Amino acid sequence: MKINTLLSALSTDTSTQTHGIYDASRHCSYAQIPALFAQLDQGIAAQYPDLPTPTCIAFEAQNTVLSALTLLYLFSKGHSVVLLPAAGAAQKEPGFKPSIPAFCPYWLTMGNEGETEVSAELLLQNFSLRPHEDYNGHQVSSGKVYVRTSGSMGAAKVVVHSQDNLLINAESYATRYRLESSDRLCIPVPIFHLYGFGAGFLSGLSVGLDIDLIHQTNILKYLDRERKFKPNAAFFTPSFCEMLLKGKRSEGQYKLVVTSGEPIKESVFREFDARFGGIISQYGSTEMGAIAAADPLADLELRATSTGKAMPHISFDLKTEDEQADLTILYCRSPYSFEGYLDDSGKVIASNDKVAWYRTGDLVKDLGKGYISILGRADNRINRRGFLVLLSDIEQKLETLVDVDKAIVISTDKQTAQGQALVAFCRLNRGVKIEPATIRSQSFDTLPKYAVPDAVQIVRDFPRLANGKLDRQSLRKLADG
Amino acid sequence: MADAAIVEQLISMIANDLDINVKATDLDPEMSLFEEGIGLDSIAIMELIVLIEKAFDIKFSDSELTFEPFENLNVLADFIAEKKAD
Lengths: 481, 86
What we know:
Chain A is α/β, with parallel strands linked by helices. Chain A has helices at residues 2-12, 33-47, 65-76, 120-126, 163-177, 194-207, 219-229, 238-247, 266-276, 300-305, 391-399, 436-443, 472-480; strands at 20-22, 27-29, 56-59, 80-83, 106-110, 127-131, 144-148, 158-162, 184-187, 210-213, 233-236, 256-259, 279-285, 289-293, 308-310, 315-322, 327-333, 340-342, 348-351, 358-368, 371-377, 381-384, 387-390, 404-416, 419-428, 455-458.
């Protein structure tokens, strides 16, 4: 396993061995890891003598040192891992069971209790490894990572990655990010999701820098950790960038801030760069990993107005699927992308031969010199009275209204005289209290009639999935309801 | 001892002025403000900070924007009282 070569190198290389993984209460250096894992081998054999090696284990990885070490340990033994999202409040209910694919025989949850000193005993004390009751007997593969897609349309699928390929990708991302072993990386986004894990954690690990993991981030926790850990690099989401702009009073200096998950408002991007520096947008998918990002040293104009250029190993193909409708979709491929899709029972839905082009389903504009701009989902475009409208354009225009902070426009299945019905969800600026009907009538001043939403709903904040992304399905339900 | 009047004012702010669904009677001054207790998210925390600064005529410095003063309402009330005394 590639991970073993990496961990061995990190522990012996003088420029990396004193670095390591941190969280609010603990820390483990890369130098400690080999001995720790050797002891863990013995401990696991004693505590779980019937555990086959390798096997497949569903694991809810939290942003803690203990969880991160556990993930690395599982990889080092060739165990396949199903990355489970945080269960959140539901976990506190008695008899709670997360949704684990039937092809996975084991389920691991980690506590975070005990002393601050990291040891194999401490890890074992916090392990709760159980057989998965609903395991269907499916044959286990080794060295894989399984992630459920958020499945915005219909049933969720399980995306399969090879652990070795995730590492190869991580190394290539680190080159794009210009990460060095002397950098200090903070990861407040979840590591049970490929963004925080594959792009954030593994890239940092691949160069052997200090990594700080923040669990259940809120603005105060982040500012606190920022003060203590003094990161010069971080992985955020656009909404966290906005929160930081509001909550952090001082200026900062980041060498690198990656933002991903959804498009960031250009004004937020520019303000963030002016006050904190080093921000780049990243675009990716669960299947392909990180697809595009700008060079952090590229000038602000390019970083603020593009989605970057192809990550190393990624090739682009921009296919115009509909000349008349000006529909150019981004296709991409990489020899280190996903292996394929499984369903929950372990049956292969499709295999990825790494040569076939993967259709991202996103509209793209070629900016030249390898740079692209992602314009939104192809289904972002709907027909209203014969005009093609981009939902993201309507959102942008609504956000220019003085009372609106953020808007998300959803098209529903209802048909109106205008075409597909549009519902706008608006988060208002703080302290503003106005009626949805008022926003709607204001929007007539900024939008052509056919693009005015049929209904406006005011929300305090937008529903999000466990990985932090906008939960459009919930909004669709609210729109229909 | 935490200033009871300040604690009461904070309870009123959280129950009435913050856009979250919580009743004054559910708020215990020893409860965590965060996910283990009242469950304020980043937006609510930011709103509360602005409300506190206005109501008590104080300003949180950057180094005070940490979760220690916000551990629970008693701690927060103590913090506010001390800042006002400065």
